[in-house]
Specification:
By secondary structure, this protein is an all-alpha fold. The chain has one domain. The chain is built from 4 helices and no strands. It starts with a helix and ends with a helix.
C-alpha cells in the first residue's frame, strides 16, 4: 500500500527521531542526518566503507521489522531484497 506524501513525511520524521546512525562505527560526519534504512532517504552520499554496523540494535530496525544491515551503503530494505 502506497503512503500519501503526508504519511511519508510523518514516517520519515519518526525514523529520524529514533535513528542511531550517528553512533555507528561506519558513520562519517558530513551533514547527513541518517535514517538510511528509510527508502525516501536512501543511501549515504558520504559513507563508503563498512567499519561495523549497529543497525540491528536501532529502535527503527525493530519497529519497521527490518532484516538487513549497512543501509547507509547497501540501500534500503527493498533495495537489498531486490525489489
Amino acid at each position: 500500500m502506497e503512503m500519501s506524501p503526508e504519511e511519508m513525511q510523518k514516517q520519515k520524521e519518526m525514523v529520524l527521531s529514533m535513528c542511531t546512525c550517528p553512533s555507528c562505527p561506519t558513520w562519517v560526519e558530513c551533514g547527513e542526518k541518517g535514517g538510511f534504512c528509510f527508502p525516501a532517504i536512501g543511501k549515504s552520499g558520504c559513507i563508503s566503507e563498512e567499519k561495523g554496523c549497529i543497525c540491528t540494535g536501532c529502535p527503527v530496525y525493530e519497529k519497521m521489522e527490518l532484516k538487513n544491515m549497512y543501509y547507509c551503503i547497501r540501500g534500503s530494505e527493498k533495495e537489498q531484497m531486490g525489489m
